[in-house]
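Deviations from the work plan: none for this task. Representative record:
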Amino acid sequence: MKTFSFQLKTPARTAFIDITSIIQEVVNNNRYESGIITVFTPHTTAGITINENADPDVKHDLDYKINALIPKEDPAYTHYEGNSDSHLKSSLFSPFLTLIFENKRCILGMWQAVYFCEFDGPRTRTVYIKILPDTPNS
Amino acid sequence: MKTFSFQLKTPARTAFIDITSIIQEVVNNNRYESGIITVFTPHTTAGITINENADPDVKHDLDYKINALIPKEDPAYTHYEGNSDSHLKSSLFSPFLTLIFENKRCILGMWQAVYFCEFDGPRTRTVYIKILPDTPNS
Amino acid sequence: MKTFSFQLKTPARTAFIDITSIIQEVVNNNRYESGIITVFTPHTTAGITINENADPDVKHDLDYKINALIPKEDPAYTHYEGNSDSHLKSSLFSPFLTLIFENKRCILGMWQAVYFCEFDGPRTRTVYIKILPDTPNS
């Protein structure tokens, strides 16, 4: 199957957007029973991560603490676009993720969701999803 | 081959536990010669990482410094469970890892080990391991 | 195809070295049309990341800020080699990366490059690249 892609609009400079159901739908729509899923975003100021799907305070605290560690403003930054913090957050959260699927279900913990991480929005962003089977006849 | 899983008990709130030999054993027990290994943990306050296998002081310093950067207590945290630091560490270390294997051996540097990272223990934790061959007849 | 590897010499204690063209060349030289690429470095004081390929100030700011957060010197470090900062940076940037390729082209954003991250150089370092097809006949 060709690489699947979709776009999303992010609402703010920093945001965590749940994309778990989109990934599961791609797994549903391909013919493989089991294998791995690569999720990749082609942006240098965004990321893909896994974190808690229940209490929204977790997203708040992730956002608060990463911004406290890596603030937008720092007099020593030299990059003219004013988003050096976003670039570092992108490398630390990383713009890709691998999941395992079995019997056509993503293996995720009961509290896990996959999030698109916006670090320099609001923008329109792209995500790619690639499915590989564990065996050709799986 | 179906996804392999195992459980481990972690000894403390934060700990790095060497799981390299378990991963190599899964490679030994499947029929493929070469490919990639996905290691995944279904928890939002844990991670999987690679670091030094020799001097235990490295683990000590990793633990010391990440806790200094992201302490358990911060008056600005809002999550009621008191483990917001654990969630952020999980996203930064990430709950998965990919390794390459060739001739039935994990490719790892002589100083590298794979560690399960506990950031909110002690608990019983699960790890999944999925093997994909590089070619169907490999 | 066997795992491809190459070596590079890093110029300084910390450096980001663009290896994108080497990865694309490995894709060009294998017979598969589409799939995923695993890039892995077998060192515990280095990493692989994706970030901006245009303004060199971004690399400068990444280097500045990660060193400000995790400085080389800290009186609480216990590891005798004096590179505990390098080990933590390696775990946070991670020593591996997954890319998708389609029609024999790595999927990367127009501003994205893949960087080898040196955190304890200058040294001679090794990188492994493994290609997996999405289907055996792709």
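Chain B touches chain A through 35 residues (CB under 8 Å).
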